[in-house]
Amino acid sequence: MLENDAEKGFRQRMTPVETIFDRKRLLRICLSLCLGEAMTAMAETPAPPEPTRVEGRLVEGGIVCPLLRTGDGEVLPLTGIGMDDYPLATRLTLDGVFVRVSPCMQGKRTLQVRRVLKVEEP
After folding, report:
1. Using CB atoms within 10 A of its CB, is residue 79 exposed (0-12), middle (13-18) or buried (19+)?
2. Rounded to whole angstroms, how far apart are CA atoms 71 and 111?
3. What is the pTM of this model?
4. What are 66-115's pLDDT values in tens digits?
C-alpha cells in the first residue's frame, strides 16, 4: 500500500506508546458506541402486546384470514384460526393480541387469536 507524505510524517511523529494509547482509546470509543447502541436498542424494544378480549361476527371478504366485525364496526383480520373453522355470521368471543405484522394483508390491525372463549353459531 502506498502512503502519501502526510501519512509518513504522521507515523514518524508517533511514538510506540502513543500508538498503543491511540489504539486503546479507539477500542474504548468503539465499545462505548456499540454498547450504547445495544442499550438504546434494548430501551426501544416495545413491551409485549397487551392481551385483549374481542367480540364480533365473522364476515365475508377475508382473502387469506377470516374477518371479524366488532360491535363498533371495525373489521379485524384474524390469525390463529382458519378460514373454514367457523361458518360466516358466527359470533365469537376471542382472547388475543394485536400484532403489527401478519400474513392477512387486510385491515389496519390484525388480532392474533390466542383462545376462542365463546362460539354462537347462526
Report:
1. middle
2. 15
3. 0.61
4. 999 999 999 999 999 999 999 999 999 999 999 888 888 888 899 999 99
